[in-house]
Amino acid sequence: MHRTPTRRSPLRPHRNRLLAGCIAVAAVLGLSACGTASGALQPTATATTPGAANSTGTGNGTAAGTAPAPGSDAAQPRTPTAPADPGRATATGKPVGTTPGATTGAPGTPTGTPAAPPAHPGQATKVISSTASGGRTVALTFDDGPGPATGQVLDLLAQYHVKATFCEIGQNAAANPALVKRVLAEGHRLCDHSVHHPQPFEKLPHDKAVYEISAARDMIVKAGGPGTRVGWFRAPGGGFNADNEHIAAGLGMDSLGWSVDPRDWSRPGVAAIVSTVQSQLKPGGVILMHDGGGDRSQTVAALKQLLPWLVAQGYTFDFPAA
Fold this sequence. Notes:
With 322 residues, the chain is of the alpha/beta class. The chain is 30% helix and 12% strand. It contains eight helices and ten strands.
């Protein structure tokens, strides 16, 4: 019986070689299949890290290099803005409003800001209550501005060639950048006095304290313009504790207190403001007064009397220690 020899297809060697080459390429590229029904190479499944953005931007987190919008659920830690109470009387004397749109991380916020330290329950740092030079010097400090009285205060200081320190509310600085720039242009210095002046400040949770201190500093710097430096932090109501002092220190600021408090925020009368300063002041002292947070006409009137008195007493004017 004659057996017909089996014919081998001339294409089979080429097909085998093609398949082998395909498998090799797939192995190099990390592809799991070759020669599917569609003829396409299929990608190998890749493990997904929770929170990482995938190639289509639909991951659980935010794509690297993209900052979440301030106040959004993606921001970590969350630092919601506490509503102000416009009717309260604070220990340092002012009802505080809210500037719409004032947020941390807004366009123009300085880059390279050091990260605030974690919660620090340990020992407090030193709160400054004396001048940098000591001796027969005095440091004038003004809280809660900039506000309507800030220009009058600056005019008086210029008349007597006095330099002072302005402890500014972040939202007020954001609303009055021209006054912040004038403070700097006339040789005065700046201090962070929180965003909203919440009290009791020492009772704030850590993330809220971080926001109030760091966001205020950024608002003041933005209002002042390039090169603006904020050297101190003053807690509203003097509410210092180990945590907020270390937050301020981590942001490059010293904690600033005072040694003379005429309680001018309460408007006790011009004579009472003047007599309190005169009786409490010792050489090297730091005087607490206010240029914002309400009607400061008594403060301005008292300053008109105090400046020539201080000069007559042989005081020179200095900045707080740092």
